[in-house]
Amino acid sequence: VHQSKLDFFCKLGYGKQDICKVLENLGQDALEDDVLKELIRMGSKPQALESQAQPSLLKLVARGSCSTSPGSKWLREDDSDSSDHLRPIVIDGSNVAMSHGNKEVFSCWGIQLAVDWFRERGHTYIKVFVPLWRKEPPRQDCPIADQHILEELEKQSVLVYTPSRKVKGKRVVCYDDRYIVKVAYEKDGVIVSNDHYRDLQNENPEWKWFIEQRLLMYSFVSNRFMPPDDPLGRHGPTLNNFLSKNPVLPEPKWQPCPYGKKCTYGNKCKFYHPERPHQAQLSVADELRAKIKAPLSLGKAEEQRDP
Question: PANTHER family from the entry (predicted)?
Fold first, then answer.
């Protein structure tokens, strides 16, 4: 039992010393959830997250950033895009197409609109995942519009079909959502979908964090692809920072002091005082003493000059 739990948490990226210490404290019969909570409480992090914290502290990291796991082998032909300042884009083709088709028609034109929107912004790495059976002729129960767009995107190396086959007349379909999340995680990119992937969040704690921080939702307004300007909420990064590898942090905005010149907090006041040059945080009493000392010192100097 000890070895199985040790192997399980080692696969998640935690160190053996931390795991053994927790198992000694909680006992060998401790539940996996309890062990995981104790590891998080101790401050232990998976190796993928520790590698993110190792670079110099002077480097600003955007909220929601995530480091790629070492030894990534996904889509090596596009590694030249790693120097680009924009994040890779991974689009959930089925989700986008059904959303554009009002959940009734698989509209390939919606996928084209999303791809064009990211291309106009300058993104060079764009991948769309669609199940292979969407290449089949449309049926009444599964209507498809503008199916030729899939062929054009496949020729441009933008669209990727996830495997599917028929066994004794029944279609066997691979889970395309797992492809989408895995590629986006490996490439340190952004997932474009209105799906929350809750089942995949429960599979892997690192995927859970990544999906929460890198999921870009969207809307279609009159055949216009529109992601939100604040993908992570009002207090999160802007859309430009969310899609950028090197986000530009806004300059701090100083709030003026509501008491103005009557403020008596001095250097303890956390608000901005425009009347104080270079934000000289002196108390009112100190300012008065400085004004009194100045004329007194001038008078003494003049008395010493007079014979």
Answer: N4BP1-RELATED, RIBONUCLEASE ZC3H12D-RELATED
Give dist(CA 206, CA 303) in Å, integer.
77
Q: Note whether 130 and 163 are within 8 A (CB).
A: no
For 139-184, give the secondary structure using H, E and C: CCCCCEECCHHHHHHHHCCCEEEECEEEECCEEEECCHHHHHHHHH
Structure tokens at 220: 């279609």
Question: Which residue range is the domain that position 208 belongs to?
Answer: 89-243
- Same domain for 215 and 103, yes or no, is yes
Q: For residues 157 and 151, what is the distance between their CA atoms, to the nearest angstrom?
A: 10
pLDDT at residue 95 is higher than 50: yes
Query: How far does Cα 284 stand from its chain's mean position?
Result: 46
Q: Is residue 290 part of a domain?
A: no
Cα separation, 160 vs 115, whole angstroms: 13
In a domain, 52, yes or no: no
Tell me if 183 is assigned to some domain: yes
74 within domain boundaries: no
CATH of the domain at 175: 3.40.50.11980
